[in-house]
Amino acid sequence: MIRRIIRIDEGKCTGCGRCAEACHEGAIGMVDGKARLLRDDCCDGLGDCLPSCPAGAISFEEREAGPYDEEAVKAAKGGGNCPGSRVRTIGKGQGHASWPLQIKLVPPSAPFLDGADLLVAADCTAYSYASFHDDLMAGRVTLIGCPKLDGVDYAEKLAAILSGNDIRSILLARMEVPCCGGLEMAVKRAIAASGKAIPFASVTVSIDGRIL
């Protein structure tokens, strides 16, 4: 069907994330530092995001798009976004989008961290475990990394995040492969360095996509 829907000019987008915060349906997300319309059926075409964009990167267009799925959006309100992604997480009533996700890129003072339940996840887990978004990400702020690929020790960065924020709990999601042990050790060392008694739990995903 042809209907009115938003269009985002990535050339003008500055990556501020204000449109993602303003979109009540969670149709907009931040990808590689730019705002993107993630799903046509979650955009109602009303344009609440337009006045929030300081760069004028959002406009309306008439094009072929699936119908707005109001029931799907309502069903996802508990997670704060449209079905298929739990990246947009609400924390302490502030409505900040939980972006970026990479441990290396997250500022320790990011407002979405304060009062958060954290999911610290190895990169591969999201691709290996089919229900990753609903079972592990829902209600948590997600931080991801791979100590083998990044070649860094995350302990210092994670300790700064834990020390500077009221983190309520930490769930670690790792693969069953040995290299993920580095991520688990980094989280445990960060908790110890923070001097806080933060509840910690972990889940291990098998290489065939099961929770062990």
Protein model, in words:
With 212 residues, the protein is of the alpha/beta class. It has helices spanning 18-22, 70-75, 125-128, 132-137, 147-150, 155-164, 181-194; strands at residues 2-8, 28-31, 34-37, 58-64, 117-122, 141-145, 169-175, 200-205. The strands form 3 sheets. The chain has a 4-stranded parallel sheet. Strands 1-4 form a two-stranded antiparallel ribbon. The model is unreliable at 89-96 (pLDDT under 50).
Summarize the structure.
This protein has 212 residues and is an alpha/beta fold.
Question: Roughly what is the average pLDDT, rounded to an integer?
Answer: 84
The coarse silhouette is globular
CATH uppermost class of the largest domain = Alpha Beta
Q: Which H/E pattern describes the elements?
A: EHEEEHEHHEHHEHE
Kindly give the count of domains: 2
Q: Please bin the fraction of helical residues.
A: 10-25%
State the CATH topology of the largest domain: Rossmann fold
Q: Looking across the biggest beta sheet, what order are the strands in?
A: 6-5-7-8
Portion of residues in beta strands equals: 15-25%
Largest sheet geometry: 4 strands, parallel
